[in-house]
Automatic annotation (TrEMBL):
Record keyword Membrane present: yes
TM stretches of this protein: 307-331
Keywords: Membrane, Transmembrane, Transmembrane helix
Protein name: Double Cache domain-containing protein
Domain of life: Bacteria
Length: 472
């Protein structure tokens, strides 16, 4: 019974632990989701800030080209005599190559373009989409237009599904006159460009335009093989329809399948109108098997708090009912044991109903019975006064060994044995037996000989009901 009681207590503790564990799982999962979304927004801002810093650095490096005397003089000549432009393009190209060598090492691969006051292309170096095109006009771009009016600008252009980071500076020959032209620095967003960004930010991201992924970095090969690019393009179509992305330029956290999530951010400038932007990606928080098991329950799929509370109170109710039943089961044998003790006090021996007890209570009752049989009721017969009269009555042959043993003990103790006949011995035992059986209502009395305080004595012990003792 005690085992069942401890089992109930264990079930209650298990229910409380299950409830606490469920709450902890839910709070931990929600906290990890919030933390992941916050870090994802931080990644997007880091990429955006780093691109702005890189743009400012490239714009500062382009000062060398806007102040170069050869470029200024060539532009003056081109503006005065535009028909001589083909004959002077080689000199422009050499001047641009000289300027390009003056750039910092990380910017020496920047392509350069010179336009005159009308926005016409005068010369270019390391511009793939302008190779073989000696004539062209860039004055219609807002960044070039502003530069031809004295402002330094930056922009993002898209040519043939390639992104170009563009910085433009005016070329001024006389500060009192309008600029004679402008010099442009174009950097293609290629593998070295995105690798340098990823090295500084430690972020997985991808650039896109015209609803297709142009270049990505930080993704494992397995993810690319599993069609992550196609997944991004498919999700991008839905993102572009959302109002917060169209107006604010940044989407919320968007799930990308079951394992990834990302934030889409639009690029400013010309790329804005072409749907250009970048997306940062992080893995989603994976649910534990325990949380997945709870989500499979149909009625409680999105009410985890109520689920945990319900399970807790169900287990608590089962434990309470079981505890109440065990309580009554515990009280009943206690009352029976108490009634048996009352009978013992009133009648002088333990009742036979104790044999119906079970478990530890039955052991307690048997212990009381053994105590009663062995220790509680005994009388000592010393035979200190021997009657000279001979008693004539029925002698009990079963007491003969006890009589002889008693004589031996009296002789050892130095007591007289001449007057103690077997008949006198049996008469004394019969009298004591009748007295004890009348007093304790027992079936028989057990006699034994012993030495106490140097004297030979007989011990008379009433034998209670249910005892296994044998009369000596």
């Amino acid at each position: 019974m005690l085992f069942r009681l401890w089992l109930v207590l264990l079930l209650i503790l298990l229910g409380f632990g299950f409830y606490t564990w469920g709450l902890e799982e839910q709070k931990s999962y929600q906290g990890q989701i919030v933390w992941g979304d916050t870090m994802l927004a931080s990644d997007s801002q880091r990429i955006e800030w780093l691109l702005q810093l890189e743009t400012r650095r490239r714009l500062d490096a382009l000062v060398v080209g806007s102040l170069d005397r050869d470029i200024q003089q060539h532009l003056m000549s081109a503006n005065v005599q535009p028909h001589l432009l083909p004959n002077t393009s080689e000199g422009f190209r050499q001047a641009l190559e000289a300027v390009q060598k003056k750039f910092p090492p990380e910017f020496q691969k920047t392509g350069l373009v010179i336009v005159d006051r009308q926005g016409r292309i005068v010369a270019h170096v390391d511009i793939p989409f302008l190779e073989g095109k000696e004539e062209g006009e860039l004055g219609g771009y807002p960044a070039v237009y502003d530069a031809l009016h004295g402002y330094a600008r930056d922009d993002v252009w898209i040519f043939d599904h390639h992104l170009f980071w563009v910085v433009v500076r005016p070329v001024e020959f006389d500060i009192t006159q309008p600029p004679v032209g402008a010099v442009l620095g174009l950097t293609e967003v290629d593998e070295p460009f995105v690798a340098s960004i990823a090295q500084k930010t430690h972020v997985a991201f991808a650039f896109y335009a015209d609803q297709r992924i142009l270049i990505a970095h930080g993704f494992q090969g397995r993810q690319r093989e599993n069609g992550l690019d196609h997944l991004l393009e498919r999700v991008l179509k839905g993102v572009e329809e959302k109002e917060d992305y169209r107006l604010g330029g940044r989407s919320g956290v968007v799930p990308l399948g079951s394992e990834m999530k990302g934030i889409f951010t639009r690029l400013t400038g010309e790329a804005w109108h072409r749907g250009g932007g970048f997306v940062v990606i992080r893995p989603q928080v994976q649910k534990t098997p325990y949380y997945r098991l709870l989500e499979k329950l149909p009625r409680w799929q999105w009410q985890a708090d109520e689920l945990y509370a319900g399970l807790f109170f169900i287990l608590l109710g089962i434990g309470g009912i079981t505890f109440a039943l065990l309580f009554f089961e515990f009280i009943q044998p206690v009352h029976r044991l108490k009634r048996g003790l009352d009978v013992w006090v009133r009648k002088g021996w333990p009742p036979s109903s104790w044999e119906q007890l079970r478990g530890v209570y039955r052991n307690i009752a048997r212990s009381f019975t053994r105590i009663a049989n062995g220790c509680e009721h005994h009388h000592l017969l010393f035979f200190s006064k021997l009657s000279p009269d001979q008693w004539v009555g029925q002698e009990n042959p079963a007491w003969r060994p006890l009589y002889e043993e008693f004589l031996v003990i009296r002789h050892q103790c130095g007591e007289p044995t001449q007057g103690l006949t077997f008949g006198e011995f049996c008469r004394a035992l019969y009298q004591e037996q009748a007295l004890l059986m009348a007093k304790y209502r027992c079936q028989k009395v057990l006699f034994s000989s012993s030495i106490q305080n140097g004297r030979a004595v007989l011990k008379a012990v009433p034998s209670m009901v249910g005892t296994d003792s044998v009369e000596r």
